[in-house]
Amino acid sequence: MSSNLKMRQIEGFVNMNGLVRAIENGKQRGSSKSVTIDGTIIWCSAAIQKYNEKYKAHVSVIKNDNIVTETFDILFTREFITLTEAIECIDTNGCVKFEEFTALKGQKIFCPDFSEENET
After folding, report:
1. Letter string b/e over residues 79-91, b meaning 16 or more CB atoms within 10 A of that residue's CB
2. In what order do the strands lie in the sheet with 102-103?
3. What tens digit of pLDDT does each residue of 10-34 get?
4. Domain ranges for the chain
């Protein structure tokens, strides 16, 4: 194994460890991005926060054409007992994966006071 590859693996582990530690301390961590699928721009967000000793996982997916009417393809905030369950929820819904999460720099993606589920 090259030293460069080994260093990237160590950096990834340290970053992931810091991400988990921040979540365990009640910080919200997540990410937002746009993707283009078949010529359609889609906006995706996901985040996790430990709140009242449970883990809140939030996912939203909306086509650019539906932003004005706020017609989401996916929109939910769900509560989980373990961080692993919350991560699995994030990784199986939407287009933002847990490994893409970062600090949100003063902004939050969702309010952890509420759980919500859209009709889809």
Report:
1. ebeebeebbebbe
2. 102-103, 29-37, 40-51, 54-63, 74-80, 116-117
3. 444 445 678 999 999 999 999 999 9
4. 3-117
Partnered with residue 75 across adjacent β-strands are 60
Most distant CA pair in the chain, distance: 52
Instruction: Please state, in angstroms and rounded to a whole number, the distance separating the CA atoms of residues 90 and 112.
Output: 15
* Whether the Cβ atoms of residue 99 and residue 58 lie closer than 8 Å to each other: no
C-alpha to C-alpha distance for 2 and 98, rounded to whole angstroms: 26
The residue-averaged pLDDT of 90-114 equals 91
Dihedral sign, CA of 105, 113, 89, 120?
negative
